[in-house]
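PROTEIN DESIGN WORKSHEET
SECTION A - STRUCTURE
LENGTH: 181
TOKENS:
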């Protein structure tokens, strides 16, 4: 695996070694030892999630105030633009974001540690999005931040108004949101 640093040190793009021939391909999507060496953390993943979204669906920016989740995310079908926003008030990169295209073709993964809001927009007709989490889903602690908060100025690569859940459409801006210390 190749571990590619991003503009925010804790967020890492992971490029697996893919072995392919005329029969198809094979790659390790997770190897605990390599992950710990490449990312510098050895998380205990407790839950796997799978979502399917249609073109233009934007999910996020989500996080949990308690039972904060680190997420290892990837796309197995389709293409998305994936975003992690640092919402740790004590961090030197508080309010900064990293975005990367994840697709079935490029097989890239993104490590989004606890302390970050996370979201993605679907760029293909549909996309299957998988993520491993370091803590369980806890709806009582779930929060979100407005996807198009002008202070974040996320460079979503879209020329359309995305489809949002009611919760995401009503999310507060970062300055009004509950965040991590």
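SECTION B - SEQUENCE
RESIDUE ASSIGNMENT:
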């Amino acid at each position: 695996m190749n571990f590619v640093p991003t503009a925010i040190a804790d967020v890492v793009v992971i490029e697996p070694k893919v072995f392919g021939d005329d029969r198809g391909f094979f790659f390790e999507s997770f190897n605990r030892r390599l992950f710990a060496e490449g990312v510098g953390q050895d998380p205990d993943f407790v839950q796997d999630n799978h979502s399917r979204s249609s073109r233009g669906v934007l999910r996020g920016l989500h996080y949990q105030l308690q039972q904060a989740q680190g997420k290892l995310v990837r796309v197995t079908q389709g293409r998305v633009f994936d975003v992690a926003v640092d919402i740790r008030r004590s961090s030197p990169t508080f309010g900064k974001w990293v975005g990367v295209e994840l697709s079935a073709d490029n097989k890239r993964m993104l490590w989004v540690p606890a302390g970050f809001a996370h979201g993605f927009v679907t760029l293909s007709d549909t996309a299957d999005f998988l993520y491993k989490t370091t803590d369980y889903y806890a709806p009582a602690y779930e929060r979100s931040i407005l996807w198009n908060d002008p202070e974040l100025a996320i460079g979503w690569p879209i020329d359309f108004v995305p489809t949002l859940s009611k919760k995401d459409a009503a999310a507060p801006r970062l300055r009004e949101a509950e965040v991590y210390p």
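SECTION C - NOTES
The two ends are 33 Å apart (CA to CA).
The chain has one domain: 2-18+29-176.
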